[in-house]
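User: Continuing from earlier, I have the next pair ready.

Assistant: Great, send them over.

User: Here they are, in order.

Assistant: Folding the first of the pair now:
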Amino acid sequence: MPTRWKVEFYEDDQDGCPVRDFLDDLGVPRRAKVLAIIRLLEEEGPTLPFPYSSQVRGKVRELRTQYQDDNLRVLYFGSPTRTFILLHAFTKRTAQTPPREIVIAERRMMRWLQHHGVQEGDA
């Protein structure tokens, strides 16, 4: 069996743990859908195909799932240590991912990289 990839929730003093907070606020069926896609990311790693995962911008990717009319998204990136960092989560209500959501994820990714002493080009 291939080695599973590690998944970590982004956490800091400023934002707390935003993806965990998002999950905690979801009802059970929606939370189950998001947790299932996170498990799939652990199992498949960077080979997780569309429609489960897609490129957003730069190093930022999104996990994609749906429950009824809700498009649930988790923005993440892969660190050089075979770890995916879950940066931001939201319910998508437009055809395009709102730029504001991407900027939040990019800002958190930069903070994570700086905190762990990783240069952006190394990630």
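And the other member of the pair:
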Amino acid sequence: MMQHSGSVETILIELDAGIIPTAMFRHKIVCDADPFKDMDLKDARKLKRKWRKLKRKHNVQKLKLSRAGSIIRSHLRNKEKK
């Protein structure tokens, strides 16, 4: 079952994985706002690094954000079910 990126379950899984929920991140990008502006530089760096690690782990470096987020969410959801 495919979950919408903005569903509560998906947001909680992404937060548990240590990344900014992709629905919120994409919304801020579309609104031309910096998603990390309200964060401490150290915390923002940690979240960016976590996202890069997940992209490498799931081999989605060259995909667009929406597609990469979808693949990573499905992997996280499958990991959560096991």
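Worth noting for the second one:
The first helix runs from residue 8 to 17. The mean pLDDT is 81.
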